[in-house]
Design a protein that fits this description.
By secondary structure, the protein is an alpha+beta fold. The protein is 44% helix and 11% strand. The protein contains three helices and two strands. Strands 1-2 form a two-stranded antiparallel ribbon.
């Protein structure tokens, strides 16, 4: 499974557990680490930008999963069924 797919699952889990639609990249990394993901934080941070609809992206395939709402605070916009 790719990093962005794992991040989407982690974000959905965080929103469900917290009961609010807000999370940070550190929370995503924590969930991924706890689940045994092998992706380093140096991969997760750039992927957060790639998955965010209102962050700058250069020549990458975007994945519109999140919206940045504050400094290192994101909102989930793609919920899993």
């Amino acid at each position: 499974m790719t990093a962005h797919e794992q991040m989407l699952i982690a974000a959905n889990l965080l929103v469900a557990v917290k009961g609010i639609n807000e999370f940070s990249s550190a929370e995503i990394f924590s969930v991924l680490s706890s689940a045994g993901s092998n992706y380093p934080i140096t991969t997760i941070h750039p992927e957060m930008l790639r998955c965010c609809i209102n962050c700058p992206r250069e020549h990458e395939t975007p994945h519109d999963y999140f919206k940045k709402i504050d400094r290192d605070k994101y909102r989930l916009i793609k919920k899993l069924s």
